[in-house]
Amino acid sequence: MKQIQIITLLVMGILISSCGEDYLDPSPVSNIGSNGFYKNEAEVEAAVINIYDGLQLAVQREWALTEMRSDNSKTRSSEGEWAQFENLDVKSTNSTVANYWAMFYNVIFRSNSVLENLDAAGPSATQFEGEAKFTRALSYFNLVRLFGDVPLIDKVITPTDTDYFDRDSTADVYALIVSDLQTAISNLDNSYKGRASKAAAQALLAKVYLTFGNNYGEAQSLCEDVMDSGFSLVGFHDVFYSERSSEIIFAVEYVNDIAADSQDFSLEFTQDGRVRGLNYATPELVQAFTDFGGSIRTQESIILDAVDSYRCGKFISNSTANQQNGNDWIVLRYADVLLMHVEAIMAGADVTTSSTAVASFKKVRDRAGLPTGSSITKEDLLNERRVELAFENHRLFDLIRFGVAESVLGTFATANGIVFTASDLLLPIPEREIGVSFGKLTQNPGY
């Protein structure tokens, strides 16, 4: 397995911003070197919690790299670097892309740090290994889907490791993801929603199998394992405002009104007249809600901000401090698993009449107050995922996984005066990373 030195990752170091519950609030450890730190179980657990602190930072601008590069969302005024995403014209110098890359490699660094110090963890070593491998797998899954071939790091590296800058194949990246998630499934139970769990690893591995290799049978089995684990749908409003409900499988947790523990994406999503308008619904998404959403999901998902201008209705902040919001970021929830279950049963076909698939589809439709027929087409499923999971960073990946991204985004681009090519489905490798690699880290085609 190849390693890589990523200077921006090392410069970031171990950034500390503690998470939402008492067990996610360790004493700061950023100025304690690993040689003098990992001496007992409590210290290793603090390092585990530090992984989730890293995730807090990493996911905050993910919507720009995903929703805004699909036909789902746009800016209100098409200004600055943000407009590059909606115009499918992202530059290799884009700071949001560069920060996303660096932050997720920082999460990988934190995960590797835990994995190399499990000997000090005592009886909790198995649990901590599962958590570290889950977060490493999640990080690589996001990176490989967005950038393609990426450098694999499976150990802690130092500034002197200068020989491994080149990219590893997508197949090798997915092999590590699968291995890590299989270990996580074996090692974890379902005690947590803001930390890794067995069900979270099962749901993520199901999505991995649907994304790479078309392993539909395994994906179906994993979805059914999650469906048998006690999760259930809640009211659609409650999904986003009753945190750690029975629908949530894994979420990145934040605390309201505490600057070190909060997030500000709710401000940018929802505005209420403040700052800048980002992640606004495209007219195409608004039409999708008219056609497929049903009134319950529509009124919770999009809010009329001005004439023909709709903003995200999910994750509205209840904070009096504009940039200190406490909404947890939902990574995996039960409705997503039910729809993946349908997808796995369809196994790439254009339609299914399976009663098992229809039953899972019906649960999601019933909550939305909509009827369900006796068959489900691929288009039905893609539309359902779009309106059920809007603004939750799934649309671009769904289009790619369903094999329709070039067609859908090509039509969308033409209608909106945007130039789209297949190379736009991957982001550029950040220019600063290529620079510190002395050119060994190559650029994606089209950039």
Structure description:
It contains 18 helices and 8 strands. The protein is mainly alpha-helical and 447 residues long. The protein has a domain at 1-188 and 421-447: Alpha Horseshoe (Serine Threonine Protein Phosphatase 5, Tetratricopeptide repeat). Strands 1-3 form a two-stranded antiparallel sheet. A two-stranded antiparallel ribbon has the order 2-6. A hairpin with a 2-residue loop joins strand 4 (302-306) and strand 5 (309-312). Helix 5 (95-115) runs antiparallel to helix 6 (125-147) and helix 6 runs antiparallel to helix 7 (170-187). Mean pLDDT is 89; it is low at 1-34.
Distance between the termini: 27 Å
Using the CA coordinates, give the radius of gyration: 21 Å
Number of strands: 8
Describe the strand arrangement of the main beta sheet, using strand numbers: 1-3
H-E order: HHHEHHHHHHHEHEHEEEHEHEHHHH
Beta-strand proportion? 5-15%
Roughly what is the average pLDDT, rounded to an integer?
Answer: 89
Main beta-sheet strand count, sense and barrel state: 2 strands, antiparallel
- Unreliable stretches (pLDDT < 50, length at least 5) are 1-34
Q: Give the overall form.
A: globular
In oligomeric terms, what are we looking at? single chain
